Amino acid sequence: MKLFSTPNSPFSRIARIAIHELSLTEKIDIEFVTVRDQESELLKYGPLGKVPALQVDGELFSDSRIIVNKLESLAESVKLTARSNDSASLSFEGFCIGFLESISIWVREARRKQELISQELLEVERSRAIRCVKYLSQNMEHLRNSISLASIAVACALDLAQRRLSFNEFEKYPELNDWLQEISKRKSFRCTEPLPI
């Protein structure tokens, strides 16, 4: 079993964190690959060429939630994804993944050549991030109780926003800020930190 990843993809980081949290480090090999590359090793396994991708028994799984769900099926008892019959947790999990997607869009736009950057898009994503951080601060009960896909996605989003965009809005909310500092101390987060760029 193999996870294809890049060192700085936040969605790959979710999968790598999940491997640690589910105690699967001895069962899953992690291979760092290039993306947006016609010669990528990943293209030998499927045409999509995106990370994360989990190869199990000849099948290639894409999408972070599907991958975490598949990893759960290989673990003993720990569950990270929301149960399908728990509407509140499922809704919150979707919000958290959407928040990470929005931060990723913001980062990608900010890294473009100066003359190609859309200031309007940057402002849309910045405003969305501010709204989302406020919403998270008002819904801490979903984060503080246990490690989950939702909490992993939020921590990865806030870390990415801080590292790449100097976005520290969460510091205005002591409970959210304290939670982020605490979850970031977990071994699974420390050993999957992105590389400097």
TrEMBL record:
<dbReference type="Pfam" id="PF00043">
    <property type="entry name" value="GST_C"/>
</dbReference>
<dbReference type="InterPro" id="IPR004046">
    <property type="entry name" value="GST_C"/>
</dbReference>
<dbReference type="InterPro" id="IPR036282">
    <property type="entry name" value="Glutathione-S-Trfase_C_sf"/>
</dbReference>
<protein>
    <submittedName>
        <fullName>Glutathione S-transferase family protein</fullName>
    </submittedName>
</protein>
<feature type="domain" description="GST N-terminal">
    <location>
        <begin position="1"/>
        <end position="79"/>
    </location>
</feature>
<dbReference type="InterPro" id="IPR036249">
    <property type="entry name" value="Thioredoxin-like_sf"/>
</dbReference>
<dbReference type="InterPro" id="IPR004045">
    <property type="entry name" value="Glutathione_S-Trfase_N"/>
</dbReference>
<dbReference type="Pfam" id="PF13417">
    <property type="entry name" value="GST_N_3"/>
</dbReference>
